[in-house]
Write a structure and sequence with these properties.
Blueprint: H1 3-21, E1 26-29, E2 32-39, E3 44-52, E4 58-66, E5 70-72, E6 79-81, E7 86-93, E8 99-109, E9 116-125, E10 131-135, E11 138-145, E12 150-159, E13 163-170, E14 175-178, E15 184-186, E16 191-198, E17 204-214, E18 221-230, E19 237-240, E20 250-256, E21 264-265, E22 275-278, E23 286-294, E24 307-310
Parallel strand pairs: 2-9, 11-18
Antiparallel strand pairs: 1-3, 3-7, 4-6, 4-8, 5-7, 8-9, 10-12, 12-16, 13-15, 13-17, 14-16, 17-18, 19-22, 20-21, 20-23, 23-24
């Protein structure tokens, strides 16, 4: 009958023995970490908490990592931790290639169960490639009289990353790119406006391209342009006026056959100059003209004063 307590006491001593053998114990929180998706070339950091959950001084004597894209932050060794003390272990992830990768952070200490392994992982993403978009894709100038000019606006937009435009050019001398002071940098997600002017030299349909050279992945970015030039007729009305505002984007020209209107717009594209030649007049008719001024934001003024022109019969 007395053997039962002795057996119980022996079992109790056996259960307590491992605890006394782990006077120092290195604990991690968490013991693994996923960095997620990081752009190639960028670096992110995460700190893991290390604690001594034992009863005696813990000493971390060395550290190492497997996986070249993972590294230690500021964590010099050796490190001593009193019982119950904690410290932060910073780990960096700097992907050098696209795709998933993983590594192991190893710490050697006087913990009887040393070493301690911490699993880390992450994915590298291609760095954002800047792209330059132009809208509209095609500028149609309609019909323009030889010797006259018409202007239209286009918008250049940087997506994903900033775009620096270093040069521009048109493959036709009849189209000129205005209002672009190069080099110019467009921040990511933002836009700038440009003006393209069509000044035909000969009659006929004209098709051309304007190109913008930049650091964008889709360089050169191309704007298509088209217009039809018509020769001056024997009857025409030449108009000229003075600019009213500062740096207007251009003008619209309106015509009517009754003083006071109604007036109809007769230019097919914004006129960048302060003159206009109307070659669509009919002999023996009196015409009344007004103009409006348009600023860079697309806001249009009211009508100017009225100009009267009586076209003689041929």
């Amino acid at each position: 009958m007395r053997a039962f307590p002795l057996v119980a006491l022996a079992l109790l001593f056996s259960w307590l023995a491992p605890a006394s053998a782990r006077a120092q114990q290195l604990h991690c929180k968490p013991c693994n970490h996923a960095f997620g998706k990081v752009e190639v070339g960028d670096s992110v950091s995460y700190s893991i908490q290390l604690s001594n959950t034992g009863t005696k001084m813990l000493k971390i004597t060395s550290k190492s990592e497997q996986g070249s894209e993972f590294s230690f932050g500021n964590f010099p060794v050796p490190v001593k931790l009193k019982a119950g003390a904690s410290i932060e272990l910073p780990i960096n992830f700097t992907p050098t290639a696209k795709g998933f990768t993983q590594g192991i952070i190893t710490l050697v200490s006087n913990d009887p169960n040393s070493p301690l392994d911490i699993d880390v992982r992450g994915s590298g993403l291609d760095a954002a490639s800047p792209e330059l978009a132009v809208t509209p894709a095609t500028l149609s100038f309609g019909t323009v009289t030889v010797g006259s000019s018409a202007s239209l606006q286009a918008t250049l937009t940087a997506s994903d990353a900033a775009v620096t435009i270093s040069s521009d050019r048109s493959n036709s001398s009849e189209f000129a790119i205005l209002g672009l002071d190069l080099p110019v940098t467009i921040p990511a997600g933002q836009s700038i406006q440009i003006t393209i002017q069509f000044t035909p030299a000969t009659s006929g349909k004209v098709e051309a391209k304007a190109g913008f050279i930049s650091n964008a992945a889709n360089t050169p970015t191309v704007e298509q342009m088209t217009g039809t030039a018509v020769a001056q007729s024997s009857n025409y009305v030449y108009l000229s006026w003075n600019a009213a505002g500062d740096n207007p984007a251009g003008y619209n020209v309106f015509r009517g056959t009754v003083q006071g209107g109604p007036y109809q717009q007769i230019n097919t594209a914004l006129d960048a100059s302060t003159n206009y030649t109307d070659n669509t007049v009919v002999g023996g008719t009196t015409y009344y003209y007004v103009t409006t001024e348009v600023n860079a934001q697309g806001q249009e003024s009211g009508y100017s004063n009225v100009a009267e022109a009586a076209v003689p019969n041929q």
